Amino acid sequence: MTEPKPILRTHGLRREFVTAKPLFGAAQVVRAVDGVDLEIAEGETFAIVGESGCGKSTLARLLVRLIAPTGGEVWYGGTNIADLDEGAMRALRRELQFIFQDPFSSLNPRMSVGALIEEPLGAHGIGTSQERKARVAELLTRVGLRPDHADRYPHEFSGGQRQRIGIARALASGPKVVIGDEPVSALDVSIQAQVVNILEDLKEEFGLTLVIIAHDLAVIRHMADRVAVMYLGEIVETGTADALFARPRHPYTEALLAAIPIARTGARRASAHIEGDLPNPIAPPSGCRFHTRCRYATEICRTDHPRLTGSGAGQVACHHSDTLALTGLADADTDRPAAAKARFALYRDAQARKAKETTEP
Ligand SMILES: Nc1ncnc2c1ncn2[C@@H]1O[C@H](COP(=O)(O)OP(=O)(O)OP(=O)(O)O)[C@@H](O)[C@H]1O
Ligand code: SF4
Ligand SMILES: [Mg+2]
């Protein structure tokens, strides 16, 4: 089998933010994304996970140049978009789209739903006015809304419906890569399942590459082909979703998995839970950035920075990954949280319905 080719690649990607100058002392620098090397294959669902503040949104925005990097490269096919000016980037935006976490604040309340979905088509000069209207109607249907919803305004819709509008808008220009920054986190669990199903279906139908940002590992358990785990601006582990959930190789991944509540009881696993808060990103710990919270830390961890090593199939940045026997989700069926289970059941039913529709005359 040939390796799928990367559609997005980053090399040494960095983004720093200078904090507002305090009353006393100097402004400080947050290294939100600090030397990230990633390869995202065409057609895969790639998830980026980690605690709040670890740099996921900054990385997501860098991947589609919604913000400019302070260093490093972002290759989309053969183009380093880190170097492109706004004009050149505008043409590429048609292919690189973003779904925001909060569908309410990302949709202009004064524009009708039809105008919102049509806007990217107009911006890229796609189709005649009539063709664009037809495309809006088609997209609304594809995300489970009705063509006549085009005349309504965002406030007339529920959170889940608004996120469907956000998805339709992101898909309007026929993108190749869609990045969803916590696309379902703001929604009720039952609605999350529907939106996840829609994203999965559309991904297949339009042959998209999907990058999903999540702090909730349960959400991406059954969506992602591969997962990257982020800690304080760095990638600490990557792997296929199956391998990473069953056999984590980085203590931070183990701790994130341990924080997923156990199905039925909702209890948290006693072992391997994560201690303390995320350290201040302005002054990250020396050596391995996770050492202040790692139950396996030794002296070398406090002084030497571990590099991310391995192949595309699985990488880890830990001095002791070869000798540690870490705990994953032992039995996905019994340990999977109820919410994720419900989501998966809905997804499976939808797939079964689809398969039936395509086999029946
Ligand atoms: N515009 C900004 N100015 C200053 N600091 C910023 C800015 N944007 C992000 N940061 C800082 O960069 C770090 C990473 O932030 P980011 O929003 O990327 O994290 P995140 O993983 O997406 O968190 P969350 O899960 O809460 O969304 C944080 O310390 C944050 O405070
Ligand atoms: S390098 Fe050391 S501190 Fe860092 S994750 Fe591995 S064992 Fe823990
Ligand atoms: Mg974020």
Automatic annotation (TrEMBL):
An annotated Gene Ontology molecular function: ATP hydrolysis activity
GO annotations of cellular component type: plasma membrane
Subcellular localization: Cell inner membrane
Matches recorded under CDD domains: ABC_NikE_OppD_transporters
Domain ABC transporter per the UniProt entry, residue ranges: 13-257
Topology term for the membrane: Peripheral membrane protein
InterPro entries hit by this protein: AAA+_ATPase, ABC_transp_ATP-bind, ABC_transporter-like_ATP-bd, ABC_transporter-like_CS, Oligopep_ABC_C, P-loop_NTPase
Keyword hit for RNA-binding: no
Pfam families, per database record: ABC_tran (PF00005), oligo_HPY (PF08352)
Predominant place of localization: membrane
Keyword terms: ATP-binding, Nucleotide-binding, Transport
A Gene Ontology biological process term: transmembrane transport
Protein family according to the UniProt entry: Belongs to the ABC transporter superfamily.
The protein's name: Oligopeptide/dipeptide ABC transporter, ATP-binding protein, C-terminal domain-containing protein
Organism: Roseovarius lutimaris
